[in-house]
């Protein structure tokens, strides 16, 4: 048979399942299971790294030809895509967790005669309740809540044990390690009546009865949610299936059976149901492309959608420029300096040869060559009466070859003599003769 791999990505663990190529019972589906703890790492990135390791190692039936990865929601869909692309993995299929679970329950024969089923998926990060039509595989209704989760159960055990010991752990790292040991104790309580785990933060000693007294209220709250979802279902629900790591807690099945009034089924190894279903849905991706080599001068769109079988556009490296990056900046700087000199010369002409306020100017007009802002688009300067027009030469990659700017020196104009003093006013007979001083002559500075 074709060697395939199924993966489910949880908040605290990555679970992988591979169908047994040589099952002991021909009429039964057997799988090899592997679990990678993701309590300290990002689950999506850890899943991509783990898949890469498995693909590099041939199994009993040869190398893996197809991979199926179950995702929880659209946000995790995109996060898995990015993590897989970072590992250069493209030959995989992404399938919804509900569809993967339905596929396994159908193949294993556990669905029986039920038509429409409800899934109770209790994991470390939250609870998802889904109603699925078996005939079409369509999810009719789905709700998710984080008010009840496996992490909440871990914290309840941690608070209980710290209160009994009278210990207050202030360091976050020590508290996280203590809570991680409480998670191990919770998992062992699924099959044991009591657990004793020694450690640096203190001994964890708890019985199943004590644990169930801590989690009864949250589980009953989840039962109310299940009743509400089933009551709003467009089709009658025939049975409730418990999957996820939380389904191993015996109290969950007993409370839901009493509250729902429907057959409640807990498959074997409920935490890996989605991974096994993803393996059954895995099919090889024909001609899965690798990351395309970018063409020089062509930039991939940073906002383009990522493909299931191709590398996302944002992974394309920056294109290499054909010219040195500083060449254009040097040429542009040379042109701006030349333009500044022309502007200073024009200012000198206007101030030094404008004449006084009482007499019109007599200096000849001078037209300077305009400075271009962009050296890549040369323009021809306007003709003047004192100098022939000059043409700007396109620059090369060196700043020393910037176009030369030419302009004519202004002609010398002798200073204008001051105007003569005005004649004294006429004398009027019969009035006292008062001689006014002549008005001052104001002489503007010369440049």
Automatic annotation (TrEMBL):
Where composition is biased (Pro residues), the residues are 412-447
Q: Where is the composition biased (Low complexity)?
A: 354-411
The cross-references to InterPro entries, in alphabetical order and at most eight, read:
ATPase_NBD, Hsp_70_fam
Please report a single Pfam family linked to this protein.
Answer: HSP70
Location of the region described as Disordered in the Swiss-Prot/TrEMBL record: 287-328, 354-447
Transmembrane stretches, start-end:
none
The alphabetized UniProt keywords are:
ATP-binding, Chaperone, Nucleotide-binding
Q: Does the keyword Acetylation apply?
A: no
For this protein, the record's SUPFAM superfamilies field holds: Actin-like ATPase domain
ATP-binding among keywords: yes
Q: Which PANTHER family match?
A: CELL SHAPE-DETERMINING PROTEIN MREB
- Name of this protein: Hsp70 family protein
What species is given as this protein's source?
Answer: Rhodococcus cerastii
């Amino acid at each position: 048979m074709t060697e395939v791999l199924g993966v489910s990505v949880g908040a605290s663990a990555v679970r992988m399942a591979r169908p047994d190529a040589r099952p002991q019972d021909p009429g039964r589906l057997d799988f090899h299971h592997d679990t990678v703890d993701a309590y300290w790492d990002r689950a999506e990135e850890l899943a991509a790294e783990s898949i890469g390791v498995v693909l590099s190692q041939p199994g009993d039936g040869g190398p893996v030809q197809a991979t199926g990865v179950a995702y929880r929601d659209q946000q995790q869909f995109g996060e898995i895509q990015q993590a897989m692309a970072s590992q250069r993995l493209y030959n995989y299929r992404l399938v919804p967790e509900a569809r993967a679970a339905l596929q396994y329950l159908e193949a294993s024969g556990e669905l029986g005669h039920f038509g429409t089923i409800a899934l109770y998926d209790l994991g470390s990060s939250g609870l998802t309740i889904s109603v699925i039509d078996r005939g079409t595989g369509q999810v009719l209704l789905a709700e998710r809540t984080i008010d009840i989760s496996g992490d909440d159960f871990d914290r309840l055990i941690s608070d209980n044990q710290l209160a009994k010991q009278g210990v207050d752990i202030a360091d976050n790292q020590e508290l996280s390690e203590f809570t991680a040991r409480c998670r191990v104790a919770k998992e062992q309580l699924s099959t044991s009546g009591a657990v004793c785990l020694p450690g640096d933060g203190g001994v964890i000693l708890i019985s199943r009865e004590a644990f169930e007294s801590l989690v009864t209220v949250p589980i009953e709250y989840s039962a109310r949610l299940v009743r509400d979802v089933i009551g709003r279902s467009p089709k009658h629900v025939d049975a409730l299936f418990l999957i996820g790591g939380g389904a191993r807690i015996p109290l969950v099945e007993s409370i839901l059976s009493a509250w729902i009034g429907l057959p409640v089924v807990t498959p074997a190894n409920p935490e890996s149901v989605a991974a096994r279903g993803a393996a059954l849905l895995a099919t090889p991706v024909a001609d899965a492309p690798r990351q395309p080599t970018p063409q020089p001068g062509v930039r991939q769109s940073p906002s383009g959608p990522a493909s299931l079988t191709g590398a996302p556009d944002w992974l394309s490296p920056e294109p290499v420029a054909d010219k040195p990056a500083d060449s254009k900046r040097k040429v542009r700087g040379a042109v701006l300096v030349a333009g500044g000199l022309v502007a200073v010369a024009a200012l000198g002409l206007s101030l030094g040869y404008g004449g006084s306020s009482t007499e019109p100017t007599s200096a000849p007009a001078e037209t300077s060559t305009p400075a271009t802002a962009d050296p890549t688009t040369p323009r021809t300067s306007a003709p003047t009466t004192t100098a022939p027009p000059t043409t700007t030469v396109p620059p090369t990659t060196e700043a020393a070859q910037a176009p030369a700017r030419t302009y004519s020196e202004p002609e010398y104009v002798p200073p204008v003599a001051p105007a003569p003093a005005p004649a004294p006013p006429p004398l009027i007979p019969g009035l006292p003769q008062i001689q006014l001083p002549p008005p001052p002559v104001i002489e503007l500075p010369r440049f």
